Fold each of these.
Amino acid sequence: QICADYKNEIITLDPFEKGVRAYLNLGHTFGHAIEKLIHMPHGVCVYYGLKMIFAFFNEPNYKILEEFVSKFKLEFPELGKLNIDDIFCYLEQDKKRKNPQEVDLILVDEIGSPYAKGFDIKNLKSIIMGHKNYENFFRKYFSDGCFGKTFQKINANKLRSFLKLQESMTGALAGASLKTYNNSKAVSYTHLRAHE
């Protein structure tokens, strides 16, 4: 509920997505590409989008996300038969891109300080492929295994919890941007844990 309230305040503040509301797109750029390729639930795809953002642009937040997943003992499907070329093929069609060659990513240096950064799509691909986490990340999460069989094993209740977690993480990290207009409402990881 806390995260939902933050999200509603951002939407009210910026109904036409001219500023702070764009922070709610955290994880969605890659998430939408994954969703188009595999047709998994939206929340699961955005979760993987978050993992990509944090794995390649902010490892401390990656560890925080992993802590949440571990705490709730969540299980989630492997992304079978996906590779970087598949993702960037669809990234070029993302509705949020500034122009055919550039796309905005929402990044977070620390919780409470999200920002948008434009990338040339080809350069972005090179950045990711040249990152020290690239090979391990894609081997771990974008395997050649059969997605369908893995997905069928997920308990329905755990999947619902997983989707709620994704919304919470997006609200917590992107919603934290409210401090840009009201410092007293900035959310933090410690603040979230206090409301468990």
Amino acid sequence: KGAINPSLGDAIASNDWPSIAAELGKSKNPIIARIGQLAGNLRGVNTEINEAVLGPNPRVYGGWSKSTNRIFMRSMQNASNESHVGHEVAHALTYHAIKNPRPDQKAAVARLRNLYRFTKSSFKKAGYTEKQIYGLKDEYEFVAEAYSNADFQTILAAIPYQKQTVWGAFTQAVADLLGIKNSNALTEFLALSEEL
């Protein structure tokens, strides 16, 4: 799933980070649009379409290398999919903050880790495994999936958590992690989704 934007695919193929951020920023999905806005501040991210790097599994649409800060997409079709690209950009945005948080990010990272453990436990009690729900693989995939996969967002919005839902707690923790103030459009949208 995810909107198809051929200009996004062209930007990925030509390794044009400003255009990638701009194309994501034009998305009709406000979460993907916000990823694009935040991505505009990233530096040193490279992109390419390279099926060989991703291995033989055709369900692996893309990847992000923490060691090279490079996003790989399997095909032009995958590179044109806003959700697929948004997932990989979410890794680029959040990985280092989760792995080595600054002092002002430590509380948000702790909340994300607790939320991930709670969510994983909830799914396990319901009989699901990490292989069935990709966002349960680890805390990094949890964040990237929750940021970019509408189906996963819907599931998280149905799980009660501390007088709200997992989705509501996730959105606030990520907003805090990335320094997004409550007055911005992303947080307002996410807060409204909590009320629906």
